[in-house]
Amino acid sequence: TPSPVISSSNTVSAGFYNTMVILLMALVGLVVVYLLIRYAKFRAFAVFKDAMILFLIYTLVTFYIYEYATYYNIYPLLLVVTFYPLSIGLTALLGYFSLYSNSQVLRGVGIVSYSAMAGSLLATSLPPVTAAMVPIFLAVYDAFMVYKGLLGRLAESMKGTVGRSLLRGLVLDLRDTAIGVGDLVVYSLMSSFVVSLAGEAMVMILIILVLGVLLGFYVTYRLLLPFRGYAPALPLPVLLGFVPVIILLHAV
After folding, report:
1. Mean pLDDT over residues 95-112, rounded?
2. pTM for this structure?
3. What is the largest distance, in Å, between two alpha-carbon atoms of the chain?
4. Distance in angstroms between the alpha carbons of the first and the last residue of the chain
5. For residue 194, what are the CA distances in angstroms to 131, 182, 251?
6. 169-221 tens-digit pLDDT
7. 3-class secondary structure for the chain?
8. Measured distance CA(21)–CA(27) in Å, rounded
């Protein structure tokens, strides 16, 4: 269910409003992160980052366990003696994987897991028009912030192994590059949105989306990344994957 700040109306005007609210929240979070790093408050940043990620994981895990137990009428999972220990246990496991594990594979499992849960929750809780608009507007925001705004400055200051270590839990390491959790959340949002609306053509449209996103990511990696050593991971995947799918869904 959308929060009181987010409109539940499934209209274009409500979609613009909701998207602006989400962009504002993303901007506020980015400013906090940038200021903490800019003024070398590394310990404060690490504590803030870890606390926020653990809180997010706990919230997501608790929500999905409750929804699963309710949907399948698994009463024992809803008991206090099982529900909260299970939520806390899974949170501890995913939190350890994402933040503290030295294994790149386990970190990837943790980060992808909580990113996928967050994106799926957004796709199903936001009104469809808003869910369709958010990736497009975030792609524009991503491009601007990387090349002209705070994301680019942050990326410059975070180059190297020290920066990667400081951002552990917020970025997924991919060999010689990394992708942010925000990008993974949007990829998950797009996939979940397509699954929820595509109907009988779901498999075909999902394949189109995945191929478009992969192509966009590949072009970004090969053509844009070498220029500065960093690049926005949303514009081309959204343009080549999500926009064609939205057009197809509208035409069907």
Report:
1. 95
2. 0.92
3. 55
4. 27
5. 10, 19, 14
6. 999 988 778 899 999 999 999 999 998 886 777 888 999 999 999 999 999 99
7. CCCCCCCCCCCHHHHHHHHHHHHHHHHHHHHHHHHHHHCCCHHHHHHHHHHHHHHHHHHHHHHHHHHHHHHCCCHHHHCHHHHHHHHHHHHHHHHHHHHHCCCHHHHHHHHHHHHHHHHHHHHHHCCHHHHHHHHHHHHHHHHHHHHCCHHHHHHHHCCCHHHHHHCECCEEEECCEEEEHHHHHHHHHHHHHHHHHCHHHHHHHHHHHHHHHHHHHHHHHHHHHHHHCCCCCCHHHHHHHHHHHHHHHHHC
8. 10
Report CA-CA distances (Å) from 34 to 25, 27, 38, 63, 229: 14, 10, 6, 30, 19
∠ at Cα 28 (237, 23), nearest 5°?
A: 40
Q: What was the pLDDT predicted at 85?
A: 93
Counting other chains too, the contacts that 33-37 makes at CB distance below 8 Å and 24 or more residues apart are 33/154, 34/150, 34/153, 34/154, 37/154, 37/157, 37/158, 37/166
